[in-house]
Amino acid sequence: MDRFLAISPRSQFWLFNLALALNILGMVLTDMWVPMVVGAIVTTYLSVDALVRLRYVLPMKKEIRELRHELEKANKALRDSYESQQ
Fold first, then answer.
1. Beta strands in 1-86 (DSSP E)
2. Domain containing 54: what range?
3. Rg (CA), the chain
4. Which residues of 5-36 are buried (b: 16+ CB within 10 A; e: fewer)?
5. Domain total of the chain
6. 39 with 27: CB under 8 angstroms?
7. Does residue 4 form part of some domain?
8. Does 1 map to a domain?
């Protein structure tokens, strides 16, 4: 998650998909199969990783942050009600 901090996750997703498309185009247009296949495998992994981060990991982190905030509010309310009863 902390590998590419210079650009946003959405930009990373589009960048890696563009790189994958260029690798596939290079495989079609040239005879350099081995480097292009390796590049396609690497960019496929990066594209899938960026997609998973964009669609699942980042929203989950946001939801966890919101739940922690709600939990802190509930704990504070519980402590306040407990202290007011004593």
1. none
2. 9-85
3. 23
4. eeeeeeebbebbbebbeebeeebeeeeeeeeb
5. 1
6. no
7. no
8. no
- C-alpha distances in Å from residue 17, one per residue of 6, 31, 41, 60: 17, 22, 12, 23
Distances (CA, A) of 66 to 62, 73, 77: 6, 11, 17
Tens of pLDDT, residue by residue, the chain (86 residues): 456 678 888 999 999 999 999 999 999 899 888 889 999 999 999 999 999 999 999 999 999 999 999 999 999 999 998 888 87
User: Quick check: is 2 in a domain?
Assistant: no
Residue 42 falls inside a structural domain? yes
Cα–Cα dist 53/10, whole Å:
9
